[in-house]
What does this fold into?
Amino acid sequence: MAELEFPNYFLIDLPPEARLDPGMLREALRQIKRNRRQYIHEMSTDDVVKVIARLANNWCDDLFPFRKFTLEEGPKNMGFSLETLRKGLDQFFGRITEESLHNLLSQEFGDSQRLDRPASIPEERLENRMAMAVGPELIGHITAGNLPCPTLMCMIHGLLIGSAQFVKCAQGAGFLPRLFAHSIYEAHNKFGACLELAEWEGGEAHLEDQLFAEANCITAVGRNETLSAIRKRLPEETHFLSHGHRVSFGFISKDMMTRAIASEQATLAADDVAAWDQHGCLSPHVFYIQAEGIVGGEQFAQMLADALDQKERNEPRGNLPASTAANISELRSVHEMRAANTGDIRLWQSEDSTAWTVVFDHEQGFTTSCLNRFVYVREVADLDEVLRTAEMVRNQISTVGLAATKLDASDLVHQLAHWGVTRVCPIGKMQNPPLTWRHDGRPALGNYVRWTDWEM
It folds into this structure.
């Protein structure tokens, strides 16, 4: 396939030798605000939904030029294998339909028309009042570089609420956001005219100051100390939505540990570990297996190792920098030495590569994985033990993948919710949340908007 030609619609399209300066950025930000007022301010939500759903459907089509280019050039630009990238695109865009978008709007606002004009829900009609939600004039997104999907979802959220948007990509992470922005421009050039993207290294205060001065709302994903520093630099009236460091784990109850069900759960767990090569806050670091099932934790670890071995054949992990691969090898060596000396640990690993690793041990608590398909399995008495020994990561857990009987599941979810977990899902779905997911337990769209109540 011939390389796609990208017109210079966005700052990110500038050649590497072109230096972005504060004046250029300031004018670009003001221009997309003007474009919003002129082009999309009065566009109906129904029309916006149709455009987004049609574009998402195109991204699921192997003949769509932007998808074809992503699959051809993405592995070398993003570090994921072709198979991982294809599956990730299918899962992400496959959940974006007219129906799911309207479900999201109804969940967030009660009535999707409330973004267009004052409208009421039944409770408001009883009090003879209406309300309207208004998105920010300009949202600035400061994105992370480990996964593309959160950035794309931020862009979709901004389109839904009718905001101009600036996307600051991490250095070297602009490949897919840039393609997605160009696909938006091709699908609806007025939408595209209200978008801007650029890529620079963190710490460029002279550029960030321009963004902070012009935007009504800033979203940021990153380390907690980075988010704290951003918050201190924002004008008092600027709305700040931040997502800090999060981790995830899985829990399988003893009643699910029959041989047939345990084997199925191991295959699903391998899907969660392999998705996007275990990057991102939704990927599991540890699977906890409740003791006294027919299949024990060590047997499950063996099943998970077999499933990851098969996964590597069908959906190989991406290539790693030498330093990252060396870190995995070093960590493996530590566990191998401990296994030889104490015998209280078992290790399964891919042959002649660092493609996947499973460690079964008797440690208590939560251990952060080095990622790239490196996962721990531990046997515990019950969920109480997990939460008691994982206290150090309390309120940092994003997702728990849960396998339990219907009789037990509700009580376990209640326990997890009160401990601070914001999402519980079936194992196998950890990296594939629904469109209506409340990220970090907060409204997906409701956090952006300002409400106007009309009391009649």
Remarks:
- The mean pLDDT is 96.
- The two ends are 60 Å apart (CA to CA).
